[in-house]
Design brief:
Order of helices and strands: HHHH
Strand content: under 5%
Distance between the termini: 70 Å
Helix content: over 70%
Oligomer: single chain
Number of helices: 4
Shape: flat
């Protein structure tokens, strides 16, 4: 069974698909494709971290904020360390712009924890109020 590399895969593409590719085939215009290949992937990554924040906050009963903030700080520390390490090793400081998206991911985790906490507080206050 032949092993396909990234170069082999990209050489089979033509047009704007040669500049960036997605793990699934799509048919669209160049502008849409560039959006999906750049900002669209970042937005999907942000939404996945929002989902992770919901799961962590849901599992951590009564400690939603502490769990989500701890996870966000750990992820932010790993992102800073990894980005600075790659920037120093490759001598390319232009990679540090990605830190904006990494911090947005951490913020999404905290936002999800806040949403779960607010929802639980409202549900608790509804149960304790006499009708």
């Amino acid at each position: 069974m032949p092993h396909l590399t990234l170069t082999d895969y990209s050489s089979t593409l033509s047009g704007p698909e040669r500049h960036a590719f997605l793990p699934f085939p799509i048919r669209c215009r160049r502008r849409e494709y560039l959006f999906f290949a750049s900002t669209g992937i970042d937005i999907a990554h942000l939404l996945s971290f929002l989902l992770i924040g919901f799961v962590v906050a849901f599992v951590a009963r009564r400690n939603e904020m502490m769990a989500s903030i701890a996870l966000a700080l750990i992820y932010a520390a790993m992102a800073i360390f990894g980005s600075v390490y790659v920037a120093v090793k490759t001598a390319d400081g232009s990679l540090l712009w990605r830190l904006n998206w990494y911090f947005a991911d951490s913020f999404a985790i905290v936002i999800a924890g806040t949403i779960v906490r607010t929802h639980r507080l409202r549900a608790t206050s509804r149960r304790t109020k006499p009708s």
